[in-house]
Amino acid sequence: MRLTLRNTFDQPHTIHPHGIISVAQRMDGLDEVLPGQSFIYEFVATEAGTFAYHCHFQTNLHLNMGMYGALIVEPADSKARVWKSEHTLILDDWDSRQDPNNPVHRPKANYFLVNGKAAPLIPDLQIPPGDVSLLRMINMGYTQHSMHLHGVTFLVMAKDGHDLPQPYEADTLLIAPGERYDLLVKGRDGRFVFHDHTGPHATNDGVYPGAFTSWSTAARRWTSTAGRTHRRPRPVTITGLLLAPACRFWMTGTHRSCAQRASNSVREKCV
Questions:
Q1: In this structure, are residues 160 and 210 in contact, taking their beta carbons and an 8 Å threshold?
Q2: Are 153 and 183 in contact (CB under 8 A)?
Q3: Where exactly are the structural domains of the chain?
Q4: What digits encode the pLDDT tens for the residues 145-197?
Q5: CB neighbourhood size of 10 (10 A)
Q6: Chain-centre distance of CA 138, in angstroms?
Q7: If we measure between CA atoms, which residue out of 90, 35, 101 comes closest to residue 62?
Q8: Is the CATH number 2.40.30.110 carried by domain 2-254?
Q9: Residue 133 · residue 125 · CB < 8 Å
């Protein structure tokens, strides 16, 4: 992968490929790129998975200002995908009262974001009944989150870009700052909430509901061509969209997917 950073801002910046271990030290994003300068980052992707990138200059401030994004490495073998769709969810906690010009930064988060948005601005994820979707969970904030999904369970397939030797089923995921998880979710009828089970994280500036909360409603009604009224199953509702551009590229080598590593008995729970 080759990535060019052109610093047009008035402060130094860097790009750190978070979780990528095949980089040379010079490419790890710790050397400052000064205003007006450019730098080309290069590395070879050796493992498929969910990673991230972020500025590593004054990280306590710049990360809180949203200088981050998803970095996705796709497997070389397209048959490794056992899901029909995928969604990347970047979790963050934000202090809206911060001053970007103040070098002293002691953030006290009052908003909790998914892809840069708090409820009710977080769009729904549409997962049709019976379809399997991959959720790429990335925590780029400073706070640990306990993400709980109503109505269905998920299969935790990978952590920090590495396939788990024994995937496991759960309905709550504890994700610390910097961690990434890959989850498989199978859609069903209904509309269900996916939220942080840490109480204050479900608020906007202390007001409930907000933040990571997405509310469930009844299935929509629709009328068939025969004039009969039915309940039409709605997809599972979660939260989606990207805050920052996602770097997505493909490996040229071989890779065993987490689904291939999972035992048949575990895999059948999701597919």
A1: no
A2: no
A3: 2-254
A4: 999 999 999 999 999 999 999 999 999 999 999 999 999 999 988 888 888 99
A5: 7
A6: 4
A7: 101
A8: no
A9: yes
pTM of the model: 0.79
Whether a cis peptide bond, with omega within 30° of 0, leads into 167 is: no
Cis, bond preceding 235 (omega within 30 deg of 0): no
Q: Which residues contact 53 (CB under 8 A, 6 or more apart)?
A: 15, 16, 17, 18, 29, 68, 69, 70, 71, 247
3-class DSSP state of 25: helix
Give burial (CB, 10 Å; 0-12/13-18/19+) of 251.
middle
Q: Tokens in use for 80?
A: 């490794």
Cα distance between residue 157 and residue 83, in whole Å: 12
pLDDT classification of 212: cutoffs 50, 70, 90: low
Q: How far apart are CA 54 and CA 71, in angstroms?
A: 10
At residue 216 the predicted structure's pLDDT band, cuts being 50, 70 and 90, is very low
Mean pLDDT score of the chain, rounded to an integer? 78
Helix or strand holding residue 264 (H, E): helix 264-267
Residue pair 185/147 in contact (Cβ under 8 Å)? The answer is no
Paired tokens of 137: 């969970």
